[in-house]
Amino acid sequence: MCGILAVLGCADVSLAKRARIIELSRRLRHRGPDWSGIHCFQDCYLAHQRLAIMDPASGDQPLYNEDKTVVVTVNGEIYNHEELKAKLQSHKFRTGSDCEVIAHLYEEHGEEFVDMLDGMFSFVLLDTRDKSFIAARDAIGITPLYLGWGLDGSVWFSSEMKALSDDCERFISFPPGHIYSSKAGGLRRWYNPPWYSESIPSTPYDPLALREAFEKAVIKRLMTDVPFGVLLSGGLDSSLVAAVASRHLAETKVAKQWGSQLHTFCIGLEGSPDLRAAKEVADYLGTLHHEFHFTVQEGIDALEEVIYHTETYDVTTIRASTPMFLMSRKIKSLGVKMVLSGEGSDEIFGGYLYFHKAPNKEEFHRETCRKIKALHLYDCLRANKATSAWGVEARVPFLDKSFINLAMDLDPEWKMVKRDLGRIEKWVIRNAFDDDKQPYLPKHILYRQKEQFSDGVGYSWIDGLKDYASQHVSDAMLMNASFVYPENTPTTKEGYFYRTIFEKFFPKNAARSTVPGGPSVACSTAKAVEWDAAWSKNLDPSGRAALGVHDAAYEDAPEKTTVPANPIAANGFAVTGAVEFTAASPASA
């Protein structure tokens, strides 16, 4: 991941303003520690902090067309850049960067080229010939981007809020799948797949087509000129990513440069069963496995940094981000700059516990649509910013544009839990990779059900967070929370504690409005709360109410601790999803 900052239409064009832009851009240097660049044209500034993944020697940014009249600063990866370059043979490319293709596509197609890009990206492009500009964000919002407005009429774009929050009167999270055009005077959606309208699809289930699409999604993300690995928790999603990457690594360009043995990474508290699960998968696949440990105190000590980097006060996101933040530092110390992770599977296939109570396939499908649309506020934000804090790039194969379109075009009847037919959650993807002749994973791992009472990080980690927050937030403070924080009022001492840290770094109203809120059960959207009348009386983001079994489990085993929103889950390190935890590390899916 890189860091981009663009300021267009400044009233001030002095050297002091340039110095200010450079100063603000440095706030993003953790995202791109390898090089810094800036292009100034009259009252427009495009700055870049580079993390060199592709073409480390010559791919510095900003990037240009042949005569430098088109300037672009990009954060992300364009996986189909070679295919696009082949269609632009009349153009001269200056670098080996996959992102340079954006400038030339603009020359050929104007503003209508964004849907040609296959990748994760946020970019700002300036056409100096008429001083027009565009900015765009990838389909799902894997890469972060913020849009702000200054009192002097300037328009700002930044990879993170911290680079524009001081200088903008108002700012928002740039919506995924959208483009901002100065000519059109605002935002419009460029990503318009059939599932976005939430209409109910009817395509029959084709397991081989689903498998092939996912394999392609993983293989294209092996595009790198630097060492990489896979985040592996031992759960279904991260195990599938690792299995496919391991199977196809030898045939890729990167294997010739860095070797054909896949590196995998896992983190947890000492003695976690999930660490053992990850090691079991790693041993089966023959990966070079790296196991990291952290303590509850180390996690608590990192909270302020985690909140500063993730730019959120959402409780479940902070809980989940902290181990990932600590792990990313360890990964970077090994010289690894890029990792593959398993975010997105639970949203696409309805893997969360509350989906068991979907009343019909129509509601099931609409909820998966809503979950995917919100990923940029939760899992994508966490996965990107927790890793980028240490200059590591996370790639997410499940959120491949083509794979999502195929999976979301599937008749949702196939995704629903049908115990009488032997279908557990995410059965369609499990079954797609069930190959007896050339198995990807052992069957007990492939069909391991999503854990409800796993010995994950909760018992020590979550209780430690709650106890620590209780020492810093009094009953009176929580009682008056609605007066102090009328917007997204915290309802727990833990939430109040995180909010105070967030407000210290980001005190403006616009900043707190970038964080979502609303009722939730087991990480559901507010709409899904309606599926069970009991949920509205017990709005808990954890899984305790999801299936109507958790309250009984508490009575039988009071020592168990419920963790709102799966602090660390199937993708390898932290997604939302409800589980209950009692000891350490990532919960298996």
From TrEMBL:
One family name in Pfam for this protein: Asn_synthase
Chain residues that bind ATP: L231, I267, S341, G342
Coiled-coil portions: none
Binding site for L-glutamine: D98
Active site annotation, chain numbering: C2 (for gatase activity)
Glutamine amidotransferase type-2 domain boundaries: 2-185
Site (Important for beta-aspartyl-AMP intermediate formation): E343
Swiss-Prot/TrEMBL keywords: Amino-acid biosynthesis, Asparagine biosynthesis, ATP-binding, Glutamine amidotransferase, Ligase, Nucleotide-binding
A GO biological process held by the record: response to stress
GO molecular function: asparagine synthase (glutamine-hydrolyzing) activity; ATP binding
Pathway: Amino-acid biosynthesis; L-asparagine biosynthesis
Claim: Transit peptide is one of the keywords in the record: no
Catalytic reaction annotation: L-aspartate + L-glutamine + ATP + H2O = L-asparagine + L-glutamate + AMP + diphosphate + H(+)
A single Gene Ontology CC term: cytosol
EC number of this enzyme: 6.3.5.4
Biological function: Essential for nitrogen assimilation, distribution and remobilization within the plant via the phloem.
Name this protein carries in UniProt: Asparagine synthetase [glutamine-hydrolyzing]
